[in-house]
Design goal:
The complex is a heterodimer of chains A (about 300) and B (about 170). Chain A is an alpha/beta fold and about 300 residues long. Chain A contains 9 helices and 15 strands. The longest helix of chain A has 20 residues. In chain B, a hairpin with a 6-residue loop joins strand 5 and strand 6. Chain B is elongated, with a radius of gyration of 17 Å.
Chain lengths: ~300, ~170
């Protein structure tokens, strides 16, 4: 937890923040509306005597009264997917429509990909990319269990992703749920901070900048890009946005998420960032008993 | 080697021809044959798949994709795996049956809760069935309607579970 001390200047009620980081996360699921309605999925939980509680901001996301949601009938049928509450934020912010062309740049293991597919009603083209071939098998098996048929899976370095296999046409929307230092997952994985170093943070920030810039380039004028991480480090969040605002044709817009969050920070350790990064959302674990998260929404070429 | 007939290339997705008459790659099923098979075997109407295209990648492995894209395409996945052809008896995947099997009107075996549990655990079980032998859709009642569990092979008074190892569950 010592690593988190560096964020004391950023976080209101820092003791509550640390306390929340020490507590394990409740078990959460998302209803996969490609295969079942929310009503049918919750009726199946009721029939098995598994208690559930809906997230305040999203009726498809709920905490469940079992450590093993995978061992329930609605999970077997692909009506439910184990996914923590904050992990449902990026796809909600991207808000794709059925029939659109959408790129998920860092897709494995597929929780957000399958959420995007459900929001698209399994129609249109959803390109799910990951640079790590090994992780693509988890993405594939999640997508299959959830009955997703509109996904095309690619194995490229997202920083120079090629549109050629899909006729070269730009995307309507892109999600960059970037590889990050994962500080916000400490409640799920108590070892998350063991390998933490400022060098790693700086290195991964370079990759994040490259991927986000490519996502803006690969999205049509007027299209939407969402950038998210599960970390608190401004180097990986606001600094990445600031960089891309200067390098590519885009602007930050309101994220539109009905959750308690703090605004993006404009100053950090002697650096200052574009004032519009305030429109990003910082979600701290003590706000609504979740993991930590960062989300920003960008509009391209406007 | 120029002039040879086109063959199946294992590492890319090729769209199936519309009918057997358009077939260019020997042994590759056509879209018409696949939709007729789902109709004849399970009573799933062909229009169920109007918004999907069908592809082969890997010998006999058929994939179903919502929408369309240029063919061939060399990527890692396209839609979901749908069925296995190029073998004596064509076989749907667990995923295809779970996704589209609720429209089936034939060769669906309804299992009790106990039989359903044994089925998803991967067990074979002796069961009475007075319909066709071969691949069946196994289903059970869940939250007010029949829900397809996966594919079973019925022979000699026995329902053999074909749920892949990675999808099995012991409740």
């Amino acid at each position: 937890m010592d690593t988190l001390e560096r964020y004391r200047p950023l976080v209101d009620d820092f003791d509550a923040f640390l306390d929340a980081c020490r507590r394990p996360l409740p078990s959460a699921v998302r209803v996969n509306t490609i295969k079942a309605s929310v009503e049918r999925a919750t009726a199946a939980l009721d029939a098995e005597g598994v208690g559930w509680e809906r997230a305040a901001w999203n009726d498809r996301v709920m905490t469940v009264d079992t450590d093993r949601p995978g061992n329930t009938w609605p999970y077997y049928h692909g009506w439910l997917h184990g996914q923590e509450e904050v992990s449902a934020l990026p796809a909600s912010a991207l808000d794709p429509d059925p029939g659109e062309r959408v790129w998920d740049a860092c897709a494995a293991p597929g929780s957000k990909t399958t959420h995007l597919a459900a929001l698209m009603d399994d129609r249109g083209l959803l390109v799910a990319n990951d640079s790590n071939l090994g992780r693509l098998s988890a993405l594939r098996s999640n997508a299959e269990r959830l009955g997703v048929t509109n996904v095309a899976v690619t194995n490229q370095d997202a920083r120079n992703f090629s549109l050629k296999p899909f006729g070269g046409e730009e995307f309507d929307r892109a999600l960059v749920d970037a590889p990050c230092s994962c500080e916000g997952t400490i409640r799920k994985n108590p070892d998350a901070l063991d390998g933490w170093s400022l060098d790693h943070v700086r290195g991964v920030a370079g990759v994040q900048k490259g991927i986000l810039r490519r996502a803006v380039q690969a999205t049509r004028e007027g299209g939407t890009v969402v950038y998210s991480t599960c970390t608190f480090a401004p180097e990986e969040n606001e600094a990445v946005l600031d960089h891309v605002l200067r390098e590519a044709d885009c602007r930050i817009v309101d994220h539109g998420l009905p959750v308690d969050c703090a605004p993006g920070v404009t100053e950090w350790e002697g650096e200052s960032y574009d004032p519009s990064v305030r429109k990003a959302a910082r979600i701290y674990p003590h706000f609504q008993d979740t993991g930590g998260f960062f989300v920003a929404k960008l509009e391209v070429g406007a | 080697m120029s002039g040879d007939a086109p063959t199946n290339v294992g590492q890319r997705f090729d769209r199936l021809s519309a009918t057997p008459d358009d077939r260019e790659v020997e042994g590759r099923a056509s879209r018409r044959e696949i939709l007729d098979w789902w109709d004849e075997r399970f009573g799933v109407p062909p229009e169920t798949f109007d918004d999907h295209t069908l592809w082969e990648k890997g010998a006999g492995k058929i994939w179903i994709f919502a929408g369309d894209t240029p063919s061939p395409v060399e990527i890692e996945g396209l839609g979901m795996t749908f069925m296995r052809t190029r073998q004596e008896h064509w076989k749907p995947t667990t995923e295809a049956v779970q996704r589209f099997g609720d429209r089936a009107e034939r060769n669906v075996i309804s299992l009790s809760r106990e039989a359903a549990e044994r089925f998803v655990a991967g067990e074979d079980q002796a069961l009475d069935w007075d319909g066709d032998w071969g691949y069946l859709i196994a289903a059970h009642e869940l939250a007010g309607a029949d829900a397809p569990l996966g594919v079973g092979l019925y022979v000699h008074g026995e329902l053999r579970s074909r749920v892949p190892k990675g999808r099995r569950r012991e409740f």
